[in-house]
Design the sequence.
């Protein structure tokens, strides 16, 4: 089980804006084993969201390599990256990012539609995912009829569609009260412990980060601290 | 992404913005409805014209002296069409000319008892009824001995019979009419029934259509400048008319332009071509509004893409490929245009039906035209939807996700 699922080597990301160029990530090397539960911390602008976008195949590094399950992602076309996002990665965002005027169920079905799952199978699978996050009775509610915590739970169910190995969550508790935050983190912990998902969470709250096993701290585009909370693994 | 998903998505997006979608479709609706209305009205008018010509006699032809060609020279008796010329024509074209007579007519006031009325009298030769779709219900038609003997005979229609004599069978009754200033008593020898064509309705006005021997109308001499012919329908009329006119000119020792002809078919072709050109011209103008409608669709789709930038980002992060986003927006604009096209088609048929209803003419709808109109509107939707859809598909997922 201790396969290296994510490996980045000498990765840099440069943002150029006219004469000004900002190095969001500066020569980072990092490796993640399958089944890890990781928090990425750091002040805003430290490069943690940029790293998440690259890990999620939404963005490409300026320099360096990113191997996902041993595959060099840098060589993939945009459409191939779409497919990787669809099958291997589940996203959870700070602002939930549910599609408006579309029911919770349909939101969960969406990745399966792009993954060409048959319509007859989709609904059942989506319902069982909603059941996992305890929202069976909200399946047909629109996002604006749900509370923040419920929205985020729908988003997690959606991230789990197509059974991806990796869950990437960018400040998943940033818009939630402490009670809902705890609920959400418990779901992530359960996914990691029971389902074996690799979960990576960006946060700037220490108590959220403490749910995880490993905390990587960023500053000015570099890793300044990599602590293992679980002791020796 | 599956087509049905895209169609469902497009429909729900159209439903979400009902008013906006309707206004967007309006250009297409106006364009398609005018194209459909105009072509339907055109097709119906053409059908009416051809039906009228058919009932009037598609094989009718007139041969006449071209007064314009002879303007600068005095006309002589020998230049006019004489009985021997008619005989020569019949001898030369025995299979093609089925009926020929000088085309002469007159009208006269008449009074039977206390009933006053006006008679329109058309000079005919024998057998006229065989070629002009007449049904003799009483008595007989004008025959050869009436012609030769210049007998005072008349054939009237059922309506005139009822009007003047208050009965259907008025054979043996007489009319007193004035022909060329001379009072004559005409005896009814036959009563006919004929379905009134549009031309009859327009021409007769208050008078009744009747037939008398043409010889009765030839008071000065037996020449004529205008011949009415019923010709064999199997031949090309333009060619046959040319042959007849050229032959006539030759036997009269004249230049070919000296006589001319006119046929129902040639006239009908002319009217149809005018109607057809008119339909195409107005249709082309209407098609411009389709282009304007297409631009409206492009505009609203661009707005929609901007509004849904974040949604596009979400979809991309969930695994939508460029193609998926492209088809999503393309199908939305095509459906928008196609719905507009369908509403426009119904509206166009409605307008044409009301118009034709007022004119009292049966509506003819060309199904090809409907297919073409709806198809064309979808093409318009696709063409003008392509740019916004490409814009959506090419959005960078991260920027799209950040969009507020």
Sequence:
């Amino acid at each position: 089980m201790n396969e290296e699922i994510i490996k980045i080597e000498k990765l840099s990301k440069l943002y150029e804006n006219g004469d000004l160029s900002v190095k969001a990530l500066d020569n980072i090397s990092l490796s993640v084993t399958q089944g890890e539960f990781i928090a990425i911390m750091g002040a805003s602008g430290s490069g943690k969201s940029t790293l998440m976008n690259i890990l999620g195949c939404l963005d490409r590094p300026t320099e360096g390599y990113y191997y996902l399950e041993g595959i060099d992602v840098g060589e993939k076309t945009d459409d191939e990256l779409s497919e990787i996002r669809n099958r291997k990665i589940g996203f959870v965002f700070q602002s939930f990012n549910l599609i408006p005027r579309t029911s919770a169920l349909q939101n969960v079905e969406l990745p399966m539609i792009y993954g060409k799952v048959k319509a007859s199978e989709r609904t059942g699978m989506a319902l069982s995912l909603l059941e996992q996050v305890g929202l069976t009775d909200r399946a047909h509610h629109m996002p604006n009829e749900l509370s923040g915590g419920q929205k985020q739970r729908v988003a997690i169910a959606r991230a789990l569609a197509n059974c991806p190995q990796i869950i990437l969550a960018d400040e998943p508790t940033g818009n939630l009260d402490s009670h809902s935050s705890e609920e959400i983190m418990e779901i992530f912990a359960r996914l990691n412990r029971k389902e074996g998902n690799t979960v990576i969470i960006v946060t700037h709250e220490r108590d959220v980060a403490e749910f995880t096993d490993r905390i990587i701290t960023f500053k000015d585009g570099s890793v300044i601290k990599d602590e293992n909370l679980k002791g020796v693994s | 992404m599956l087509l049905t998903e895209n169609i469902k998505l497009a429909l729900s997006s159209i439903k979400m913005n009902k008013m906006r979608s309707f206004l967007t479709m309006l250009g297409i609706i106006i364009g398609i409805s005018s194209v459909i209305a105009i072509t339907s009205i055109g097709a119906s008018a053409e059908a009416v014209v051809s039906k009228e010509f058919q009932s009037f006699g598609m094989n009718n032809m007139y041969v006449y002296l071209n007064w314009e060609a002879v303007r600068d020279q005095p006309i002589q008796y020998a230049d006019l069409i004489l009985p021997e010329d008619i005989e020569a024509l019949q001898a030369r074209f025995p299979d093609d000319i089925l009926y020929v007579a000088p085309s002469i007519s007159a009208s006269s006031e008449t009074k039977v008892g206390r009933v006053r009325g006006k008679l329109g009298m058309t000079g005919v030769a024998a057998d006229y009824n065989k070629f002009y779709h007449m049904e003799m219900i009483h008595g007989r038609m004008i025959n050869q001995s009436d012609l030769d003997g210049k007998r005072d005979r008349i054939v009237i229609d059922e309506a005139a019979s009822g009007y003047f004599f208050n009965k259907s069978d008025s054979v043996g009754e007489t009319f007193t009419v004035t022909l060329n200033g001379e009072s004559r008593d005409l005896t009814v020898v036959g009563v006919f029934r004929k379905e009134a064509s549009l031309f009859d309705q327009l021409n007769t006005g208050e008078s009744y259509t009747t037939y008398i021997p043409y010889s009765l109308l030839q008071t000065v001499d037996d020449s004529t400048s205008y011949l009415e012919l019923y010709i064999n329908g199997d031949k090309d009329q333009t060619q046959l008319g040319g042959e007849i006119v050229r032959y006539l000119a030759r036997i009269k020792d004249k230049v070919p332009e000296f006589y001319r002809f006119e046929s129902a078919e040639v006239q009908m072709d002319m009217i149809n071509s005018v109607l057809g050109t008119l339909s195409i011209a107005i249709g082309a103008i209407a098609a411009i509004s389709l282009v304007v409608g297409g631009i409206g669709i492009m505009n609203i789709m661009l707005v929609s893409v901007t509004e849904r930038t974040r949604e596009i980002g979400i979809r991309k992060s969930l695994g939508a490929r460029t193609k998926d986003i492209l088809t999503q927006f393309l199908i939305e604009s095509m459906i928008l245009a196609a719905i507009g096209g369908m509403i426009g088609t119904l509206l166009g048929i409605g307008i044409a039906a009301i118009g034709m209803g007022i004119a009292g003419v049966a509506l003819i709808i060309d199904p090809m035209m409907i297919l073409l109109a709806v198809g064309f509107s979808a093409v318009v939707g696709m063409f003008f939807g392509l740019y916004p859809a490409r814009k959506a598909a090419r959005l960078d997922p991260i920027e799209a996700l950040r969009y507020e």
Remarks:
- Strands of chain A lie at 4-17, 20-33, 37-42, 63-68, 71-72, 89-92, 166-170, 198-202, 214-219, 222-228.
- The interface with chain B takes residues 53, 56, 58-59, 78-79, 82-83, 85-87, 91, 93, 97-101, 110-111, 113-116, 119, 158, 162 of chain A (CB under 8 Å).
